Amino acid sequence: MNIKEVKILKSHLIEYKDATLDLIKALEEDNIDKLDPLLEKRQDLINHIESQEYDNEIFKDLCTNLNIIPLQSKLSTMLNEKKSEVKEEIDKLVELKSASKSYNKRFSVDSIYFNKKI
Prior knowledge:
This protein is mainly α.
């Protein structure tokens, strides 16, 4: 791998790091609308990096020097926490909906009445 290829790989890894930082910032600010485009951008960078041929040791060294691994770990943790929060909110809404339905059923009146003369 020549120096030019290493520089190109490094520039892509810097873009990847920036995209990861943007995702972390969006999660911290609860800006959910920004997550989709940022995740797509980041995935495009991953696909581009994977399509290149490079030495694994150089890749690991660059990732270590750019502190990408701790950022990735932080992002994963934040995404899992956000996922758990959203799941809890959905569960609460489902529970409220179920409670509301059962409450309304008790007091509903059947629309069909039978009149019978004896």
